[in-house]
Design goal:
elongated, five-stranded antiparallel sheet, about 140 residues, 2 helices, 5 strands, alpha+beta
């Protein structure tokens, strides 16, 4: 009967359409993910251009490697998001080298310290200000 044939063909067409949509969907998701990655990379580049500070979050998600570069000096340091000696919510600061690579920084930033998360913007402003200042 023709009604049974039409119903069967519609069912097959619906299934094939659904299968086609499923096959295309991951490509769209991949494109969306790639677009998001590119946007985040542009944001990081803009942040670095505006501040002179580049950051790289470690694979472990615990440490942020930072490099602040000015015209006359640079300072590399790490920020530990979960310092062992700190309280919950504290951060750790550690200069990359103990050789005093940026002697213009205050004494308290010459060695590692643990500080409250709320103080992070103040600390970053201090580092950026010193690194960017001209002698």
């Amino acid at each position: 009967s023709s009604d049974a044939l039409v119903t069967s063909l519609r069912r097959q067409l619906t299934q094939q359409s659904a299968d086609a949509i499923k096959a295309v969907q991951p490509a769209h998701e991949l494109d969306a993910l790639q677009a998001r990655v590119e946007r985040l990379e542009r944001q990081a580049a803009a942040y670095e251009m505006l501040t002179g500070l580049s950051v790289d979050v470690g694979k472990d998600g615990r440490t942020i490697s930072c490099c602040c570069k000015g015209e006359e000096r640079a300072h590399e340091f790490a920020v530990d998001l979960f310092p062992e000696d700190g309280d919950a919510g504290d951060l750790g600061y550690q200069p990359a080298s103990g050789d005093g690579s940026c002697k213009e920084l205050p004494d308290y930033l010459q060695d590692g310290i643990i500080f409250e998360r709320s103080q992070a913007p103040t600390l970053m402003c201090k580092i950026i200000g010193v690194v960017m200042s001209r002698s």
